[in-house]
Design brief:
The chain is of the alpha/beta class. The protein has one domain (4-322): Aldolase class I (TIM Barrel). 42% of the residues lie in helices and 13% in strands. The chain has helices spanning 4-7, 9-14, 17-33, 66-73, 97-107, 122-132, 152-156, 161-173, 189-202, 215-218, 227-244, 248-257, 265-268, 295-305, 316-319, and strands at residues 38-42, 83-87, 112-117, 139-145, 177-184, 206-210, 271-274, 280-281. The protein has an 8-stranded mixed sheet with strand order 6-5-4-3-2-1-7-8. Helix 6 links the parallel strand 3 (112-117) and strand 4. Helix 5 runs parallel beside helix 6, helix 6 packs parallel to helix 8 (161-173) and helix 11 packs antiparallel against helix 12.
Length: 330
């Protein structure tokens, strides 16, 4: 029987206390107490891009002042946060992003602060990098979106490819951990092969995620990969599986079965989300809905309505620590 534990066995067989056992125990405590250790923050509800897989660029949301963010982040439920993922929209649009990073590093005993960006504003990114490079303690990661070479600007709706490359060079110059995120929509396999070559040239990890439908972002859009593209994605993920012995095959199984195969940190209560107004949600799938019920009741509703077909990979590696014997369908 294939289980999440077998997917993750490379880490468990090492039995390193700091990197394996302690995080696992911490996650399982969060599961039990429903006090989250991971948090996603949609810092802004607007974007300068016009991505074909996302409609956030149509929003005209106002940015929340830093003082209001402080209030949202100091609510008791968030007292144990160790991992924060900053996203949007485009988080570089938030003019006080460097100050925001300084604030969250002071509020929490952070282990990781992860920023997702298109890299469209290299000058703003430089100010952020200057600040975090002088903060000691957390692991800082900046993920830059790059979906192809010729195809990237078309998919993202604006001229952003060259700026993304400038941003990647800048992140490496500051000796900050960088990754490349690729969302697969209608790219041809040869385009994706060239992107793999580019990532290898930069000596950076490449995260491949097939586009999936999610009501908070895509509204009525549906994404079905062409057969040759789907095969390329599956082959690539198998290659990653051989290297990491961790997550990729679980995602392949989700693609094949059409329903969620991997566990969810949000459903476990070990992770939560804040929207651009500082409102607390179970996860991004709940954004925009009224939520007078308790978090437990809202998790139950999401499980009944959306979780089975949700293909989000957010915090999957964390969630696997709480489900090491979860069976997977082949």
């Amino acid at each position: 029987m294939l289980t999440t534990g077998r997917l993750f066995y490379k880490q468990y067989t090492k039995m390193n206390f700091k990197k394996t056992i302690l995080p696992t125990l911490r996650y399982q405590l969060a599961q039990l107490t429903k006090v989250p250790t991971a948090l996603t923050i949609n810092l802004v509800d607007r974007c300068s891009l016009k991505c074909q897989m996302c409609d956030i660029w149509q929003n005209k949301g106002k940015d929340m002042p830093l003082a209001d963010w402080h209030k949202a982040l100091t609510q008791p439920l968030l007292r144990k946060i160790t991992y924060i993922g900053l996203t949007g929209g485009e988080p570089l649009l938030y003019k006080e992003l460097p100050q925001f990073a300084t604030m969250v590093c002071g509020l929490y005993n952070l282990e990781t602060l992860h920023l997702n960006t298109s890299g469209i504003y290299p000058d703003r990114l430089k100010k952020y990098l200057e600040i975090i490079s002088n903060i000691h303690g957390p692991r800082f990661v900046v993920a830059v979106s790059l979906d192809g070479i010729e195809s990237h600007n078309r998919i993202r709706g604006v001229e952003v490819y060259d700026k993304a490359l400038i941003s990647l060079d800048m992140i490496r110059a500051y000796d900050i951990e960088a990754t490349i995120n690729c969302v697969v929509t209608d790219q041809k396999p040869n385009e994706l092969d060239r992107l793999v070559d580019l990532a290898e040239t930069f000596n950076l990890p490449l995260n491949i995620t097939p586009a999936y439908s999610r009501t908070d972002l895509n509204h009525d859009k549906e994404f079905v990969l062409a057969e040759e593209t789907a095969k390329w994605v599956e082959d690539y993920l198998y290659k990653q599986q051989a290297k990491t012995k961790a997550l990729p095959i679980g995602y392949i199984l989700q693609m094949r079965t059409g329903k969620r195969q991997l566990p969810c940190a949000f459903l476990d209560g070990a992770a939560v989300s804040l929207d651009a107004n500082g409102e607390l949600y179970v996860c991004q799938n709940e954004f925009g809905t009224e939520h007078t019920a308790s978090l437990a009741e809202r998790r139950k509703k999401l499980k009944q309505t959306k979780c089975e077909t949700c293909l989000s990979t957010c915090f999957n590696s964390l969630a696997m620590r709480g489900h090491i014997i979860k069976p997977l369908e082949i």
